[in-house]
Amino acid sequence: MKVAIDIGHIPHYQRDMHDRLINWAMWAKPGKTASICPMFMALGFKSNTRQWHPVEFRPTCDIFDAADMEKMICKLPKENRDALIWFYIYSGVSATKARKALGSTLEALNDRIIDARQMLMNRC
After folding, report:
1. Residue 78 and residue 10: Cα distance in Å, rounded?
2. Which candidate, 94, 86, 75, places its Cα nearest to that of 113?
3. pLDDT value at position 49?
4. Given this structure, which CATH class describes domain 63-124?
């Protein structure tokens, strides 16, 4: 009998590390930064979009903690690091595609993610 694997399940003792990794993912995701041309900033340019659009409140990112997490993640074994990057940064890719790309079973992928979080907790 096959047992269903819940790849998104976070063990209760890893919740704090999960929150830190979400912060890291907000910092590390490609293409999520927006900027204003420096010339307009020097002239004191302000966008008038606030007149038509309500203010959006977005979660903030602790960039110092994210940079520390990046250093620790780079030191993880390759299999664990790749699984963690898929889970937090490229979560839009299905688990089946990630499993095939990483050359593992779904159970092994889940174990690698949990083990990577535990390794990071041990290093903190």
Report:
1. 21
2. 86
3. 57
4. mainly alpha
Task: Give per-residue pLDDT as tens, 68-118.
Answer: 999 999 999 999 999 999 999 988 888 888 888 888 888 999 999 999 999
Residue 3 DSSP symbol: P
Instruction: Count the Cβ atoms, other than its own, within 10 Å of residue 70.
Output: 12
**Domain boundaries of the chain, sorted by first residue:** 63-124
Do residues 86 and 63 lie in contact, with contact meaning Cβ atoms separated by under 8 Å? Answer: no
pLDDT of residue 98: 86
d(CA 107, CA 3): 10
Q: Distances from the Cα of 39 to the Cαs of 20, 31, 34, 46, 48, in angstroms?
A: 35, 22, 15, 12, 17
Give strand ranges (E) for 21-124. none
Beta-sheet strands, E only, within the chain = none
∠ CA(73), CA(87), CA(31), 5° rounding?
Answer: 80
Length of the chain (residues): 124
pLDDT value at residue 30: 75
